């Protein structure tokens, strides 16, 4: 009998087949990246949690939102108990993460630690849960680098994530700052034995370079257009053009989409585009450009489930 592809969510294991609606492949529901002291890059569970929960519940009602891949990792203000509460209250499955973000946010434990030691830390969290919460991560991410080549500490963090992924059967989602360095990330991760189809290279919608996107997709990796709606970084016009180019090149089964809500000012309650921008604004434009319902389902539901589980197109 075929074992169902299981996803580790913040409320326990979930068969991939149980997720009937779309997923958001790269989001933050709880976060603290405040380095300026202005409190902007924060999603405080006590202050902003109710608004986050309400948005997810509304998206479940309106669009059938079934899953959120939440990529807040070590040093980013991760709060597994808050994620479990939001997931239960919104009735939307949430996958928590482990790993290390890019170098400005590295925690002291990275200093002088070898790749094996770091991988051991991640494997312990994956197998034993986050702290005393019992919440198990279902993905490694967002493991980060900046520039065209990862720094030495970023290389160690990426290699450790790859080793932990190979050891535990999870996948790795990266943070490629402003879309740069994705090919270098892919090379580092695969050199540790991680299959490309267990890798999602992040923020590629911020890189206006279709050739890079095609090279990543041709390798078998997922190409994440995951900052949809962040017009201050890139216009959705450019994002749509890049997406259509990748689809036309035959790589629909390699695309992931999300909004990467990473500041409370992006929440609808505060006048921002919200988690629903993908469904309310971007996907209707993609449909108008010829993307049909089957393609939308592939990109927004089947691809994220396949990324998390390692399943093939035929299986999900």
Report on this model:
With 316 residues, the chain is an alpha/beta fold. It starts with 5 loop residues before the first strand and ends in a 7-residue tail after the last helix. The model has no long low-confidence stretch (mean pLDDT 97). 38% of the residues lie in helices and 15% in strands. β1 and β2 form a beta hairpin. The chain is built from 9 helices and 13 strands. It has one domain (6-309): Metal-dependent hydrolases (TIM Barrel, Alpha-Beta Barrel). The protein has a 6-stranded parallel sheet with strand order 8-9-10-11-12-13. It has helices at residues 49-63, 80-90, 115-128, 152-168, 182-191, 210-219, 236-248, 277-288, 293-309; strands at residues 6-9, 12-15, 23-27, 31-32, 42-43, 67-70, 93-95, 97-98, 139-145, 172-176, 199-201, 222-225, 255-257. The chain is globular and about 50 Å long. This is Phosphotriesterase. Belongs to the metallo-dependent hydrolases superfamily. Phosphotriesterase family. Keywords: Hydrolase, Metal-binding.
| pLDDT averaged residue by residue | 97
Number of DSSP-assigned strands: 13
- The value of Rg in angstroms is 18 Å
CATH superfamily: Metal-dependent hydrolases
Report the uncertain regions: none
**Global morphology:** globular
Task: Specify the helix fraction band.
Answer: 25-40%
Number of domains: 1
Continuous helix count: 9
Distance between the termini: 16 Å
> Strand count, sense and closure of the main sheet?
6 strands, parallel
Supply the helix-strand structural class.
alpha/beta
């Amino acid at each position: 009998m075929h074992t169902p592809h299981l996803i580790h969510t913040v409320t326990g294991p979930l068969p991939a087949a149980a997720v009937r609606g779309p997923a958001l492949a790269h989001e933050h529901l709880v976060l603290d990246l405040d380095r300026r002291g202005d409190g902007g890059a924060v999603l405080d569970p006590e202050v902003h949690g109710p608004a986050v929960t309400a948005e997810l519940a509304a998206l479940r009602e309106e669009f059938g939102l079934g899953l959120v891949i939440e990529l807040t990792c070590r040093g980013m203000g991760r709060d597994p108990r808050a994620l479990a509460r939001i997931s239960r209250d919104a009735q939307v499955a949430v996958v928590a993460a482990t790993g290390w973000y890019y170098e400005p946010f590295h925690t002291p434990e990275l200093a002088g630690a070898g790749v094996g030691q770091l991988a051991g830390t991640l494997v312990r969290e994956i197998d034993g849960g986050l702290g005393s919460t019992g919440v198990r991560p279902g993905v490694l991410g967002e493991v980060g680098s900046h520039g065209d080549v990862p720094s030495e500490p970023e290389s160690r963090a990426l290699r450790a994530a790859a080793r932990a992924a190979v050891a535990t059967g999870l996948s790795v989602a990266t943070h490629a700052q402003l879309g740069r360095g994705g090919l270098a990330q892919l090379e580092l991760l695969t050199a540790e034995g991680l299959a490309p189809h267990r890798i999602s290279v992040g923020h590629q919608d911020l890189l206006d370079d279709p050739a890079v996107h095609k090279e990543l997709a041709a390798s078998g990796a997922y190409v994440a257009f995951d900052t949809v709606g962040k017009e201050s970084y890139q216009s959705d016009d450019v994002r749509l053009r890049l997406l259509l180019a990748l689809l036309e090149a035959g790589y629909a089964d390699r695309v992931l989409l999300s909004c990467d809500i990473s500041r409370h000012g992006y929440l609808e309650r505060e006048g921002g585009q919200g988690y629903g921008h993908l469904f309310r604004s971007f996907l209707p434009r993609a449909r108008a450009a010829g993307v049909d319902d089957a393609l939308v389902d592939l990109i927004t539901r089947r691809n994220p489930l396949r990324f998390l589980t390692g399943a093939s197109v035929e299986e999900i």
